[in-house]
Write a structure and sequence with these properties.
single chain, mainly alpha, two-stranded parallel ribbon, 5 helices, 2 strands, globular
Length: 121
């Protein structure tokens, strides 16, 4: 493991609980937030703010799959659309949560988001 990778892992371990608390505190009717909004709400400053949010979201995804919970990371989407970035889908497939067929990803995401929103109410 490189020093940068080690530092990123350490930073993610510190950021992930704060990100989970932020996402759990979102109003149920508010819907998803963008990666940028998450970074700003966490008080992150450049460089690499979006990357740090993404790495922390990956940590949350692994925790949620291990605990059998809906993926709270589904509450963070790209500003270029109503879906998370590609890394979310790749990890969801790798963790066995989403089917491998990319044509099924949008539907799997909507179902995951409904699970998260339903568990918040």
């Amino acid at each position: 493991m490189t020093l940068k990778a080690k530092d990123a892992g350490s930073a993610s371990a510190e950021l992930a609980p704060r990100l989970r608390a932020l996402l759990e505190g979102l109003p149920a009717e508010g819907g998803p937030i963008t990666y940028q909004q998450a970074a700003e709400a966490l008080g992150l400053v450049p460089p690499h703010t979006i990357r740090r949010v993404a790495v922390a979201l990956e940590t949350l995804m692994r925790e949620d799959v291990a605990a059998g919970r809906p993926l709270i990371a589904a509450l963070v989407v790209s500003r270029r659309g109503a879906l998370p970035r590609q890394g979310f889908f790749e990890l969801a497939v790798a963790l066995g949560r989403f089917p491998a067929d990319p044509a099924c990803h949008a539907a799997a995401y909507r179902q995951e988001l409904e699970g998260v929103m339903g568990s918040a109410s």
